[in-house]
Design brief:
Helices cover 44% and strands 14% of the residues. The chain has 666 residues and is α/β, with parallel strands linked by helices. The strands form five sheets. A six-stranded parallel beta sheet has the order 10-9-11-12-14-13, with helices on both faces. A five-stranded parallel beta sheet has the order 1-2-3-7-6, sandwiched between helices.
């Protein structure tokens, strides 16, 4: 190293805060922050365009700590730079209600761009940030005014690169030529189990070169090498850059650096004292940072100057291009166009008037054709299933060929697709949607959870929703997936039964600004259901009476999606027998249960215990609505390979079975 460690006080401040906070919490990961401190010092103090006074400045550079277990690195950077993260927040690391959670949590503190911790998803989010920046810039920049012009920087470690999602995301990033994505790899050779060479022997440089990335190698503790590599990365505008930084984990800890001992456990009081000596840190008190160090780090004045310069640039843009400026502001605010609800309601009414009996995946495509032209912020894509998911609408334009496009051909990358969409949503200016078969939501499951955890408006289009897809067999036939999605907090699952409910589902998803929505759609054609205007208005409540009982109410049938047809057939049969039965269509149970008690009671009177639910999915979920004395008709096993009609009969999901179940309860 060209400079003695005891002279690198700005970087050592990160090390001090990290080891002290982890020690006080008696929990955490000091190794990565201490090992990456020199890289972070160069990036944040010399290159990162940000403003601690306004963490949401639209044209800031984005920084993602993909190896989120090293969260104290990010917290130290935010604190030292002048963000609203105090020394008391640092001291409360990993404590209840603290801004400094165990892993960075989006929304807990200014400057945290995304929640990281599940390894590999941070780099996929970063790809989403870079994709959003490139696309938004192409849509709004002018030859004489590049109003959107920022970089995405990402730190990652061995664990992120071992996770398969890193391959999916980084492969696509190379294909898309995301030249403003710069990634620093903490190549310390250590994971929880020890030296990674026993389980991770990839040639990472060749791997990323094969993706189409620029790859640079540096000593991760040599500031000049880091600086030079960063300049080279910024100069390469057609390829993303991976900077492989050879580092020592836990650098500064004399007995634990370079070992797994410092990866995920406190160093210990005695070792911290020795580390202070090794780092040349004069003050032995925990968390002690001198005024000189704070002054060297504080970015509030420089950051405000950068934003002020951009604000002047935007004022010029606004004067020359007022319509574009207003549209950009609207989109960055996350507000929908003022006439969106009117247009959505007009489309719902049109679906009702036309009364088409089509697959809900086709109804979904119709919704995209009707609503996407009014929403230029839509940035959708499918995992190599556009022709089956029916996600290509008439104005769809691929970003691979058109930088200002609105559609991403993700290839067979369900997990990365969803995590990238999370990054797009977090960046702002877009409403992303993803698409695949419902069964392959399983590949994307953790990224779906992350969008819910971060309260992001991401729309997931999942087609081929049941055994109704037929001959592809049990590997492709979802059974337990819908229940899993419904049980995810802060997530809404719509399974519409026809074109009208599909249109309402889209309206709801687009209006839901702080939660993701999954649309569960059929492969097979479904009949149009007759409704009054009053019933149509009630669909958005998640559940409503589709068919009212004739005479005294004796039983209730609850159904979703393709099984609403079975419920209606059973209704007609039972009504002819003089049974007072009603059909409740419940396209979104999560929304329904959050309605006021009076409405829920009006739909599902507590006194009526003869209840039957029917859905071609796992049965357990529905007992919360029918009670243990009710009956659920659905799947209790995996599917089989056969035509759809044969499968429904084979598994006993028929209108006759619904009739028999009701009769047995009254």
């Amino acid at each position: 190293m060209p400079t003695p460690l005891n002279q690198r006080h700005t970087a050592n401040a990160i090390r001090i805060l990290a080891m002290d906070a982890v020690q006080k919490a008696n929990s955490g990961h000091p190794g990565a922050p201490m090992g990456m401190a020199d890289i972070a010092d160069v990036l944040w103090r010399e290159f990162l365009n940000h403003n601690p006074n306004n963490a949401n400045w639209a044209n800031r550079d984005r920084f993602v700590l993909s190896n989120g277990h090293g969260s104290m690195l990010l917290y130290a950077l935010l604190h030292l730079s002048g963000y609203d993260l105090t020394l008391n927040d640092i001291k409360n690391f990993r404590q209840l209600h603290s801004k400094t959670a165990g892993h960075p949590e989006y929304g807990y503190a200014d400057g945290i761009e995304t929640t990281t911790g599940p390894l590999g998803q941070g780099i996929a989010n970063a790809v989403g940030f870079a994709l959003a920046e490139k696309t938004l810039a192409a849509q709004f920049n002018k030859a004489n005014n590049a109003i959107i012009d920022h970089h995405t920087y990402c730190f990652l470690g061995d664990g992120c690169l071992m996770e398969g999602i890193s391959h999916e995301a980084c492969s696509l990033a190379g294909t898309l030529g995301l030249g403003k994505l710069i990634v620093y790899y903490d190549d310390n050779g250590i994971s929880i189990d020890g030296e990674v060479e026993g389980w991770f022997s990839d040639d990472t440089a060749k791997r990323f070169e094969a993706y189409g990335w620029q790859v640079l190698n540096v000593d991760g503790h040599d500031s000049e090498q880091i600086r030079t590599a960063t300049l080279s990365a910024k100069a390469e505008t057609t390829k993303p850059t991976l900077i492989i930084c050879k580092t020592v984990i836990g650098l500064g800890s004399p007995n634990k650096q370079g070992k797994e001992d410092c990866h995920g456990a406190p160093l210990g009081v005695d070792e911290i004292a020795l580390a202070r000596d090794m780092l040349g840190w004069e003050n032995s008190e925990p968390f002690a940072i001198s005024d000189e160090i704070y002054q060297a780090w504080n970015a509030k004045v420089a950051g405000q100057a950068k934003e002020d310069k951009w604000n002047a640039q935007f004022a010029d843009y606004q004067a020359k291009y007022p319509d574009e400026a207003a549209e950009l502001q609207r989109r960055l605010s996350g507000e929908l166009p003022s006439d969106f609800i009117t247009k959505a309601d007009e489309f719902i009414a049109l679906c009702h008037t036309k009364g088409e009996s089509i697959a809900t995946r086709k109804a979904s495509q119709n919704a995209l054709n009707a609503l996407a032209p009014a929403l230029p912020e839509i940035l959708g894509g499918s995992a190599d299933l556009a022709g089956s998911n029916l996600t290509l609408w008439k104005d769809a334009k691929g970003v691979q060929s058109h930088a200002d496009g609105n559609y991403v051909h993700y290839g067979v990358r369900e997990f990365a697709m969803t995590a990238i969409a999370n990054g797009v949503a977090l960046h702002g200016g877009f409403i992303p949607f993803t698409a695949t078969f419902l069964m392959f939501m399983e590949y994307a499951r953790n990224a779906v959870r992350m969008s819910a955890l971060m309260k992001q408006r991401v729309i997931n289009i999942y087609t081929h929703d049941s055994i109704g897809l037929g001959e592809d067999g049990p590997t492709h036939q979802p059974v337990e997936q819908i229940a899993s999605l419904r049980q995810t907090p802060n997530h809404f699952t719509w399974r519409p039964c026809d074109t009208v409910e599909t249109a309402v589902a889209y309206k709801s998803a687009l209006l839901t600004a702080h939660a993701p929505t999954s649309l569960i759609l059929s492969r097979q054609n479904l009949p149009h259901q007759a409704r009054s205007d009053e019933q149509i208005a009630l669909i958005e409540k998640g559940g409503y009476i589709l068919a009212k009982e004739q005479g005294e109410l004796q039983a209730i049938i609850i159904a979703t999606g393709s099984e609403v047809e079975l419920a209606m057939n059973a209704y007609h049969s039972l009504s002819e027998q003089g049974v007072g039965v009603r059909v409740v269509s419940m396209p979104c149970a999560e929304i329904f249960v959050n309605q006021d008690k009076d409405y829920v009671e009006s739909v599902l009177p507590n006194a009526v215990r003869a209840r039957v639910a029917v859905e071609a999915g796992i049965t357990d979920y529905w007992y919360k609505f029918v009670g243990l004395d009710g009956k659920v008709i659905g799947m209790t096993s995996f599917g089989e390979s056969a035509p759809a009609k044969e499968l429904f009969k084979h598994f006993g999901i028929t209108s006759e079975a619904v009739v028999e179940a009701v009769q047995s309860l009254i």
